[in-house]
Amino acid sequence: MNERTPERGLESIPALMARNARTLAQRPAYREKEFGIWQSWTWSEAYQEARALAEGYLALGINRGDFVAIVGRNRPSLYWAMVAAQMCGAIPVPLYQDAVAEEMAYVLEHCGARFVICGDQEQVDKVLEIQANLPNVDQIIYVDKRGMRKYDHAHLNALADVIAEGKAAHHRFDAELDSRIAALTYDDPCVMLYTSGTTGKPKGVVLSNRNILETSKNTCGFDKLGPNEEILAYLPMAWVGDFIFSVGQAMWSGFCVNCPESAATMMTDLREIGPTYFFAPPRVFEGQLTSVMIRMEDAGKFKKWLFDTFMAHARRVGPAILDGKPVSGMDRLKYLLGDLFIYGPLKNTLGFSRIRVGYTAGEAIGPEIFDFYRALGINLKQLYGQTEASVFITQQPDGEVRSDTVGVPSPGVEVKIGETGEVFYRSPGTFVEYYKNAASTASTKDAEGWVATGDAGFFEQGTGHLRIIDRAKDVGKMADGSLFAPKYVENKLKFYPNILEAVVFGAGRDRCTAFINIDLTAVGNWAERNNIAYSSYQELAGHPRVHDMIKGHVEAVNRSVAEDPMLSGCQIHRFLILHKELDADDGELTRTRKVRRNIIAEKYADLVTALYDGSKTISTQTEVTYEDGRKGHIRATLTLGDATVVAVTAGKAAA
Questions:
Q1: pLDDT by residue (tens digit) across 59-76?
Q2: pTM score, two decimals?
Q3: Rounded Cα distance, 237 and 96, in Å
Q4: How far is CA 553 from CA 102, 490, 497, 518, in A?
Q5: Alpha helix (H) ranges present in 207-298?
Q6: Are strands 476-477 and 189-194 parallel, antiparallel or unpaired?
Q7: Which CATH class is domain 476-653?
Q8: Of 97, 112, 102, 190, nearest to 144 (Cα)?
Q9: Where are the beta strands (DSSP E) in 387-494?
Q10: Which CATH class is domain 13-279?
Q11: Element (H or E) spanning 632, and its range?
Q12: Domain segments of the chain: what residues?
């Protein structure tokens, strides 16, 4: 690929921030809600804070090439901590704030972080717990002072004090800091982000300034993002999506990054901000839809009828209206009435009234869920990406949005399909390397820069849109040779508000089976309406009426799957409702809530065997991790159920 040269003077994130401080000086750059009040910083103020923090780092002895770990919730000060590290020639490494100490230890040891920036006492405690095994950690800096008064501060500092030190000593460090910023090049590391570790230990993905800035420039141009956008920064800072949206694109376009007060207030804060540019993984949209459906189940008959009537109309004509396609005057009038009474108030309740561009990615979203939001008039689109690509591989252009594709190659990105059906790409956003892992780097990225995604897909004839079938390692064959794509079926199951998670098995077997996690909120609400008493998740999951309800959902999905000739063999023959929720702390999900399929199959091997040997019930014991890190066991007797499948003719199945 042709190497692109940076725009003059814009070789790094610090350079972009300095530009914004000059050209957008008084425009809002960051907001944070604390104690119920929104606080705001302009680009000029934010730049001065980041610069003062960088000089505070210099006072503490930071060196070029040092790794600076950042762990905590989304806060302006932690974004500035990353930029300040970059100003000093150091490399920021964001961590997942909900990671347990053992997971943090792996990352901190692997990258050899000298500085760790913590959001609060909880994160400091986790670092202190493992510090004896981390000889490289020299300084721990914390944002929130609560609970920190009696700690040993020999190598522990408040972020505010480090900033104050930087401001007081700026005459000593101005020249050194300017020199380090000026020395940053387009090919220097910008950030190191760790993969989710779906199949093994997380890998440190090194992304350069070129990767982040070229991707940000190209994608901002694709969706015409400018300084007037508002986004809500609520996703984990360790996730590449948050970095590209809240740092890369925000710095390039100069738009405002809003940080909610906490995860518990996120939905309220979302409504208050009303973002114009919004990203969420499918689980967020699934959760919001579940909330809507629960509320409508509790609504009166007339209100429920009104909602169902207008939503049926919205599903029929809403996407066409959104894309500017021809719609009859009567249909348009009815949609306007629906917008007045149903769609508009609902979008306002969700916080989506002002969205101009919305994206979902991370894993495939169920078509029914995707179409629901599009029907409301929300410009929700799909993108396909990964950490190693600086997120963007494909995007859906306005007017070409569909639930079954992930769009066309993003600007500057080349995509090809390998002989085995695996998707490959190369782009300016292609990562530099896996840190300390030359073998994995070489097996993932070839000498010409092509990266193997690990996903199976194909380009549609005529439209040029890419369709992703599933993870290449998960796509397989049934015993009769028919295609097996578990994620396709799992997403259909998760459309139902009562189903939180699903894991489908069937590769190499004569039929498919499934584990189901119920959604405690949705099913609990249903149980309350039906006078079903329960005292725990386990008791509710094991109730016969819950089993019958889930069976109805599974059979409805089977009827839908049967309509796809390629995947009709993936209908679910038997299922069970798990006695516990799949949990990242138990190793069953990644921190980004991706299913760790191999681990689940191994951990619950007895349950998988029972699904295939015809057992009606099975007693099992499962190890669980409590919130305080203690281990324990839960015992349960599970009911295994049969589901009706739709017969498919041989001709249709082979079509």
A1: 999 999 999 999 999 999
A2: 0.82
A3: 7
A4: 39, 12, 10, 12
A5: 209-222, 240-243, 250-253, 266-273, 282-298
A6: unpaired
A7: alpha beta
A8: 97
A9: 391-395, 408-409, 414-417, 422-426, 433-434, 451-459, 466-471, 476-477, 483-484
A10: alpha beta
A11: strand 631-642
A12: 13-279, 282-425+450-471, 476-653
